[in-house]
Amino acid sequence: MRRSRIFWGAVAPIAAIFTSCLLMYIILSLRGESPFELFKLMVSYGFEPRNLVSEINLTVSYYLAGVAAAIGFKMLLFNIGIDGQYRMGAFFGAVVGAAIDLPAVLHVAVIIVVAMIAGGAWAAIAGYLKVRRGVSEVISNIMLNFIAAAIIAFLLSPKLLGSLPEGSQNVQTKPIPASGQMPTIKIFEGEVYSVFFLAIFVGVAYWVMLNKTVFGFNLRATGLSFRAARSSGVNAPGMIFVTTVLSGAIAGLVGIGTLLSDTHSYSMAFPSGFAFTGLSLAILGRNHPVGIFFAAFLWSFLERAGQVLEFEGIPPEIVIVMQGTIVLSIVIAYEVVARINLKQQQRAVGKVNAEVLAEVEAK
Amino acid sequence: MPNILEVSGVEKKYPGVIANRDVSLLVREGTIHAIIGENGAGKSTLMKSLYGLIRPDAGTIKVFGETVNLKSPQDAIALGIGMVHQHFKLADNATVLENVILGSEPSRFGIAIKYGEARKKLLEIAKTYQLDIDPDEQLANLGVGERQRVEIAKVLFRGAKILILDEPTAVLVPQEVTELFSNLQELVKNGLTILFISHKLDEVLSISDEITVMRQGTTVATLTPAGTTKKALAELMVGGELPKPIAGALVVSPNSFLTMKNVSYSRADGREILHNLSLDLHGGEILGLAGVEGNGQSELIELVMGLLKANSGSVEVLGLDASVTHTKDIRNAGVGYIPQDRQRDGLLMFAPLWENRILGHQFAAPMAKGVWINKGAAAEDSKRVVTEFDVRTPGVNVLSSALSGGNQQKFIVGRELSGNPKLIIAAQPTRGVDVGAQAIIWDRLMKARSQGAAILLVSADLEELFSLSDRIAVIYSGTITSVLDPSKTTPEDIGLAMTGANH
Amino acid sequence: MSTTTTPLTTFKRKIKPLVSSPARIALLVAGLLFILSLVELLTGFSDISSPGTSSATLRFAIPLLMAGLGGLWAERAGVINIGLEGMMIVGTWTGAWFGFLHGPLVGFIAAGVFGLLSGFFHAILTVKVGIDQAVSGLAINLIAAGGARYLSGIYFPPKGGDRTVSPPSDAFPTFTIPGVSPLLERIDGKNIFFISNIAGILNGVTKEISLVTIAFLLIVPLTSWIMWRSKFGLRMRFSGENPMAAESLGINVYRIRYIAISVSGMLASLGGAYLSLVASSVYREGQVAGRGFIGLATVIFGNWKPGGVFAGSLLFGFTDALRIRQNESVMALIIVAGIVGALMVLYFLISKKWKFAAFSIVAALLALLIYLKVDVIPQEFVTVFPNVATLVVLTFLAQRLTPPAAAGAPYRRGSE
Known about the structure:
Shape of chain C: globular
Order of helices and strands of chain A: HHHHHHEEEEHHHHHHHH
CATH topology of chain C: ABC transporter involved in vitamin B12 uptake, BtuC
CATH class of chain C: Mainly Alpha
Number of helices of chain A: 14
Number of domains of chain C: 1
CATH architecture of chain C: Orthogonal Bundle
Number of domains of chain A: 1
Strand content of chain A: under 5%
Oligomer: heterotrimer
CATH topology of chain A: ABC transporter involved in vitamin B12 uptake, BtuC
Strand content of chain C: under 5%
Strand order of the largest sheet of chain A: 1-2
Radius of gyration of chain A: 23 Å
Number of strands of chain A: 4
Low-confidence stretches of chain A: none
Order of helices and strands of chain C: HHHHHEHHEHHHHHHHHHH
Structural class of chain C: mainly alpha
Distance between the termini of chain A: 34 Å
Largest interface: A-C, 45 and 50 residues
């Protein structure tokens, strides 16, 4: 029984990736391209050292988004607000980081804490609305994403919290001094953000919290069965709120790598789309810290390696289609597997019941 | 008067239980025919067969003299049988008219609904049967009695000649009951036939023309109100002998572990569920709570566990005020809770057994060490429970959903009895459980009792109540109507008390 | 997930309708216009009731209207369509491309067909396969966005290297009510208080209206008719309110949801096509810009009624149009808001609703403060107004909203 669970658990993601590859194969063949050649090209390009480095950096951001989404999913919450929460975290982290001056480690720590608070606080709005007013967190988070972008765009004007460095058209926050910057690790002629280690820490902490602590138990229990959790003494509505805030806090960390090791300030050029990515990764990785990591790497690999397609005259955005297809195939595969499992179980229970019925009749 | 409905020899079996056995029923046209019985008597199953929701394994059903084979509710509706469910199937955000005509809309070319025609037909029905309904009222604005009238109108709109009402007065206040009864009499005056399922003897005696009693899946007698008494009916419902208590000598502690004084509780929509309820439970005794389901038992239990707050009165659990204490603190004080719905309230279906051992006990040792979950202790103790309670499972890492219902229940009982709780709330503890398991559970409950625990045993199974309880309190319509001594109670007494006929 | 879940209440007390008869609505609108005219007279900012503003409003409103109607059809049947954004993108792309190749009419037809297909795809995933509605919508958004960019890169002829803009399509014929327009212009020119303002506004919406606009506007009453007067509509509404009840009466809820969600996709797609064929003449990357989500917002704002969705889309279209108008117009609106707030205070004081009176005082004072202290309303705030408005409505008016009770809830046939 256990073995078959692992089997099915692995089959779904593999089947999904396979389906997407098949789809890409078809699309590319239709255009007269040779898909194998292109795949080979992508793979070799993707594993080139300097590309590998940027992929690792991208993986870190994606990973954090994935963990944030996974925390939500454990409570059956669909945190599509990661976009807004990430921006809030990055923005206020940048602003506060530039405004203070502390010894190095402390400075960085403060920025990280501020980013988490900003992300968590923004998520708390959606959490409050859900618990007190029954408002779907999907709708409120979608609205909050736009509002966050607007508020930040407003605050980013030169008259307020932004500044316009010479020779640049890009308004940014004031730069963070050296004590607030995080070093990079020189590997393969590239620079890997040291935030990498923070991400590992977050992943481990996530796993430990979820599986080893009472809080994590309560979280999972509420997601598995609201009523059973409630009967067991868990404050279920409170749990929902706390989980939302926690998810938002982690989302606030998504931009830290870019902020502290690369740009050292926040601008509108910061990437977007982390909500979709984070949710996709959590689904792909089955909310497991290691699974999410592999999914994050897959995602960043596809994105980076996809760039080489441009040289072949193929728009690299086909990679986005591939990602969407992977998510879809995975979810469908899970659903199908769940149905099969259920039928199997029902048959087994039916057999047991038939035996019991025979016993009763014999009386 | 001809027989409009003839049921003979109907049988229906489910895994582990025979729901209907040799059921026979003759209903004469133009009468109100009541079917009474206690929990598990088989009334619902019979009604579902008559309405095409389930197919009987054997027997025949004849409508208007013709044998019929009902495969779905649509078949039943086509024959003129209409069912008014206990749980209404209505949409708040629509008008009465829309709710009534859904699925049978008069239409032009099958596209546009002829509202004028529909409204006229509904008003005619309302006038003929003296049903007070307003076709254009938003359903959300209607009270319970009015909603029931809409459900009645629904079946009449489809030309029903036989109406089946499943516990119609369970949700009504006395005034609404009176209105319902006058409606029913009006329907009968116009030639319709009513099949009325209930457990409330007073009502049944006042309104029906004939009464059929069901017990343990079969029909035992059919009588007229004039030809019988409440006592006789009660005895027929409950059966002959009641088991004698098997628990040992009673050693009761002077302390009350659970005290409820004049407790009233109303739901959010204003309906009063519990009314001036008082009970008292000491250590070392088993207090059985008898009563037909739906008389407030679930709410009572939730009040004790701190999941609901009483509107007035006091609930004291092991010295704690349940209205201000968190459920987890109540549990930590030494309360075990075997919930009525094991799959929804007692287990995490898609989690392994050892995690389910932690459920309900995650706020204190030994399952938790501070903020950390003690997996080792949980696994250890799960194994103990599995052995002690004979839970059939390949191991403690299996998902609880893989276990059969009986084994799930055994595990839950084992879990809730561990740690020597002082107060045990056991709701339907042996429902769906085989005889062997039942014996084990009963044995453990009595052991707990002999060790000084107080047990509130809420059960629909009279045999269980009478075998285990030291006292039996009867709950009816949200209040305790009597407290009986099982060794001296006759079937009539308990039957009358449970059906509210003794005051 | 559903939009709102009533916290444990099954039977509500009497629900007072949020907006009552058409007569009342007309009176309210007239009153607003009166105040507006007053403000314009006093401040000299006359841009708001100009034909330019009203025609821009309509142009911005139509795509939102279509997205909103798309959201309405889906939600009334019980499914929250998160994929509206993606379906709009499908519409913008197919509309522009086929419009370029074969003319705008074919463009719209193509958009409709592809929208229908994408809706149907969403329906199969959520109804038949049974995956989570939000996940399915998410995936569709991704695939549509990536797909559009990919196809742009392949099919669009490089125009100086820019592959994000499609080649232009011809415009759809427009329509002007004969005789009316010059008359309105004359009235407008005369600067008569209140009458000229109305004339100005009307002029904007009667001069050179695209036939498509008119066609799409007609979908509002059509939707209303279908939902409340047709057999399908009644069954569809019950699929969204209580699918179990519908099923017990022999209705095939699955089939109804297939149809409704397909239509939802079609409407959203047509709205997208409007963006690339009427509001402009090209497809541009990122054109949809969140309008699919605003569509969801108009459904909430409009309390799940076609008329409400129309009103919401007009309001949001209006604020969208303001972005490109002068700042003075926004200021004038703030004054109007302030006056309205003051009047509401009076109304609530008279009807003794103290809490609402307090809110109105705060709102009016806020308006005054902004007018006095702020020079320029940042563009971003104007853009994001629909989102804030929706959030406010959800927060404070959650009890008065009447969403379809089963919207967003998973449903399997035969489950009880």
